[in-house]
Amino acid sequence: MAEEFVASEQYDDFVGTIAIDGHEGGFLRELAANAEIPDDYYPVGFQMWNAVPVDGKEDGTVPLTIVAVRCEQAGVNIEEMLRYNAENSELPVYRFESSINFNRLRSLMKRLDIKVRVGSLRDANIMVYPK
Question: Would you list the domain boundaries of the chain?
Protein backbone atom coordinates (compact mmCIF):
# COMPACT_ATOMS: atom_id res chain seq x y z
CA MET A 1 0.00 0.00 0.00
CA ALA A 2 1.36 3.41 -0.97
CA GLU A 3 1.70 6.30 1.47
CA GLU A 4 2.29 9.99 0.87
CA PHE A 5 5.92 11.07 1.31
CA VAL A 6 5.45 13.73 4.01
CA ALA A 7 6.66 14.10 7.57
CA SER A 8 4.09 13.67 10.30
CA GLU A 9 4.00 13.76 14.07
CA GLN A 10 2.24 11.18 16.18
CA TYR A 11 1.00 13.29 19.08
CA ASP A 12 0.73 16.78 17.52
CA ASP A 13 3.92 17.78 19.37
CA PHE A 14 5.93 19.69 16.76
CA VAL A 15 5.68 20.37 13.03
CA GLY A 16 8.07 22.19 10.75
CA THR A 17 9.97 22.60 7.54
CA ILE A 18 13.46 21.84 6.35
CA ALA A 19 15.59 23.23 3.53
CA ILE A 20 18.96 21.92 2.38
CA ASP A 21 21.48 23.22 -0.12
CA GLY A 22 24.10 20.75 -1.32
CA HIS A 23 27.64 21.43 -2.46
CA GLU A 24 27.77 21.51 -6.25
CA GLY A 25 24.06 20.77 -6.45
CA GLY A 26 22.32 17.89 -4.75
CA PHE A 27 23.96 15.05 -2.90
CA LEU A 28 21.24 12.46 -3.39
CA ARG A 29 23.36 10.51 -5.88
CA GLU A 30 26.03 9.98 -3.21
CA LEU A 31 23.40 8.90 -0.68
CA ALA A 32 21.91 6.60 -3.33
CA ALA A 33 25.28 4.99 -4.01
CA ASN A 34 25.66 4.30 -0.30
CA ALA A 35 22.20 2.67 -0.34
CA GLU A 36 23.19 0.57 -3.37
CA ILE A 37 20.30 1.84 -5.48
CA PRO A 38 20.34 0.33 -8.99
CA ASP A 39 21.31 2.61 -11.89
CA ASP A 40 17.81 2.44 -13.38
CA TYR A 41 16.39 4.37 -10.40
CA TYR A 42 16.61 8.16 -9.95
CA PRO A 43 16.80 9.35 -6.31
CA VAL A 44 14.39 12.17 -5.54
CA GLY A 45 14.30 12.37 -1.75
CA PHE A 46 15.37 10.96 1.57
CA GLN A 47 13.94 10.37 5.00
CA MET A 48 15.82 10.30 8.28
CA TRP A 49 13.99 9.40 11.44
CA ASN A 50 14.56 8.89 15.14
CA ALA A 51 18.25 9.67 15.27
CA VAL A 52 18.92 6.57 17.34
CA PRO A 53 21.83 4.14 17.17
CA VAL A 54 21.80 1.73 14.24
CA ASP A 55 22.50 -1.88 15.19
CA GLY A 56 23.28 -0.77 18.74
CA LYS A 57 26.18 1.44 17.61
CA GLU A 58 26.52 4.74 19.47
CA ASP A 59 28.69 6.31 16.75
CA GLY A 60 26.18 8.82 15.39
CA THR A 61 24.94 6.55 12.60
CA VAL A 62 21.29 7.19 11.80
CA PRO A 63 18.78 5.24 9.70
CA LEU A 64 18.16 6.69 6.27
CA THR A 65 15.67 5.86 3.54
CA ILE A 66 16.25 7.06 -0.02
CA VAL A 67 13.17 7.28 -2.24
CA ALA A 68 13.75 6.87 -5.96
CA VAL A 69 11.74 6.85 -9.16
CA ARG A 70 11.99 3.79 -11.40
CA CYS A 71 13.15 5.49 -14.62
CA GLU A 72 11.41 2.99 -16.89
CA GLN A 73 8.13 3.88 -15.21
CA ALA A 74 8.21 7.65 -14.71
CA GLY A 75 11.14 9.13 -16.62
CA VAL A 76 14.86 9.67 -16.63
CA ASN A 77 14.88 13.38 -15.76
CA ILE A 78 12.89 15.86 -13.69
CA GLU A 79 10.89 17.18 -16.67
CA GLU A 80 9.68 13.68 -17.57
CA MET A 81 8.84 12.98 -13.91
CA LEU A 82 6.83 16.19 -13.66
CA ARG A 83 4.95 15.26 -16.84
CA TYR A 84 4.28 11.75 -15.45
CA ASN A 85 3.01 13.30 -12.21
CA ALA A 86 0.69 15.68 -14.09
CA GLU A 87 -0.72 12.87 -16.20
CA ASN A 88 -1.14 10.37 -13.36
CA SER A 89 -1.75 12.64 -10.34
CA GLU A 90 1.12 11.01 -8.45
CA LEU A 91 4.80 10.20 -8.76
CA PRO A 92 5.50 6.66 -7.52
CA VAL A 93 8.78 6.23 -5.65
CA TYR A 94 10.37 3.20 -4.05
CA ARG A 95 12.21 2.88 -0.71
CA PHE A 96 15.83 1.88 -0.32
CA GLU A 97 17.08 1.48 3.25
CA SER A 98 20.51 2.64 4.34
CA SER A 99 22.25 4.42 7.17
CA ILE A 100 24.79 7.19 7.44
CA ASN A 101 26.87 8.85 10.10
CA PHE A 102 25.13 12.14 10.88
CA ASN A 103 28.39 14.12 10.72
CA ARG A 104 29.01 12.66 7.24
CA LEU A 105 25.50 13.65 6.18
CA ARG A 106 26.08 17.17 7.51
CA SER A 107 29.37 17.42 5.60
CA LEU A 108 27.47 16.84 2.34
CA MET A 109 25.29 19.88 3.04
CA LYS A 110 26.22 23.44 2.27
CA ARG A 111 23.31 24.76 4.33
CA LEU A 112 20.80 23.07 6.60
CA ASP A 113 17.83 25.08 7.86
CA ILE A 114 15.27 23.41 10.14
CA LYS A 115 12.37 25.30 11.64
CA VAL A 116 9.97 23.65 14.09
CA ARG A 117 6.91 24.94 15.92
CA VAL A 118 4.49 23.57 18.47
CA GLY A 119 2.05 21.37 16.57
CA SER A 120 -1.04 23.09 17.93
CA LEU A 121 0.24 26.32 16.30
CA ARG A 122 0.61 24.69 12.87
CA ASP A 123 -1.77 27.18 11.22
CA ALA A 124 -0.62 30.30 13.12
CA ASN A 125 1.14 33.03 11.15
CA ILE A 126 4.30 33.16 13.30
CA MET A 127 6.47 36.20 12.57
CA VAL A 128 9.97 36.67 14.04
CA TYR A 129 10.99 40.20 15.10
CA PRO A 130 14.32 41.49 16.41
CA LYS A 131 14.50 42.12 20.17
Answer: 39-112
